[in-house]
Amino acid sequence: MRRHFALSVVLALSAPVVLSAQDSNEVKHDRRELRGDRKDIRHDTKDIREDRREVRQDLKNGDTTAARHEARDLRQDRRDRRHDVRDAHRDRKDLRQDRKDVREDKQ
C-alpha cells in the first residue's frame, strides 16, 4: 500500500515537468512551422511579382494565350499566399498560447 502511495506521489509531482517539456516542444514546433510559412509567403510573393510582369509583357506583345496562362498561374499563386497567410496567423496564435502555457506551468 505504501509503495502504491509513494508511486502516485512521484507521478503526481513529475506530471508538471512532463507537461512543461511537452509545451516547450510545442513552442519549438510552432516556431518552425511559422518560419516555414513565412518562407512560403516570400516565395509566393516573388512568384506573384514575376507572373504579373509576364502577364504585362505577354499583353504588350499581343500574346493573349500566354497572358491567360500566366493569369491562371497568378490566381493560383495568390490563392497559395492567402492560404499561407492564414496558416501563419493560426501558427502565431498557437505559439502565443503555448508560450502562455509554459509560463503558467513555471508558476
Q: Give the tally of structural domains.
A: 1
Element-by-element helix/strand order: HH
Structural class from helices and strands? mainly alpha
Which strand-content bin applies to the residues? Answer: under 5%
Average pLDDT works out at 82
Tell me the distance between the termini.
32 Å
Number of strands: 0
In the predicted model, the low-confidence regions spanning at least 5 consecutive residues are none
Number of helices: 2
From the alpha carbons, calculate the radius of gyration and give it in angstroms.
25 Å
* Major beta-sheet overview: none
Oligomer class: single chain
Which geometry do the CA atoms define?
A: rod-shaped
Helix content: over 70%
Explained architecture:
The structure is a single chain. With 107 residues, this protein is mostly helical. The chain has one domain (20-106). The chain contains 2 helices and no strands. The protein has helices at residues 2-61, 64-106. The longest helix has 60 residues, at 2-61.
